[in-house]
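Pasting as-is:
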Amino acid sequence: MREQKELQFAFIEANAKDYPVTDLVELTDVSRAGYYKWKNRGGGSMQANQDEQLYSYLWKLHQEHRGTLGRKRMKIALKETYDIQAGEMRVARIMRQYGLRCKIRQKRYMKRHDSHHKVANILDRNFHAEKPGCKFAIDITYLPVQQGVNKFLYLCAIKDLFHDEVVAYALGPRQDMALVYEVLEGLKEKTFVKGAILHSDQGTQFTNAGYQMRVQEMGLTPSMSRRGNCWDNACIENFFSHAKCEMACFFEDAKTASEVQYAITEYIHYYNHKRIHTKLQTNPVHFIERWEGQWGTRGTAKATA
């Protein structure tokens, strides 16, 4: 009987951070007062031991999956691999307590205020452009940093869809509006058609009213993917995919923020000037030079913003 009560007290202790003690007591045969007496006698140490035992399994799974498991998939892996049933909130609490962080960027759902607006999907997956400077795509991705205070660097880039050149980019420790505005300043130095399309996803930086106003002031036409549809912005997502995969082949020892920054800068130069693109049958810079030699810069105008 005493052992049964100990188990019930331990059950309440294990879930007390996630649910009200009053609700948990109703699921057992013990009283609220009895639980607190047990806890004051040091009974919580049993739960600490159980957490420590569970942590050993979480750590093994964390290592096996190279830190890519969040609480949801970690719970499933516990059951699948070790036949251990644990609540998602308990798994999350122990992972947080012992510093087991998922390395994969988590989706962040933010409430959109009135200052955030969607615009039409003008591009509508028509990634073909008749000439340079008439269709662009913009997006933000993250680059992991193994050493240092910042665990990630964020890369914001703009790509010309005519010849796939990354025409402007910026790196920073935060994915904020300053990063996006820096990229737009870089685009101002390029040549583009008045009213050219600048396509993005529905990230909060791009639904921001300030961003949309800045784009229109530059003489560009904003376009936006449908919500939750990554294929609408695949034209620049493929650049990020190539960069993350191929950069490691050139700079496998890049670990600090400065090393990662140098690596992505050098890779973008390689991507524009040397990397063979199947669609172009050459690199973007050579392709545009060859095109301009044949057709000139007819129909383009220097940005006036």
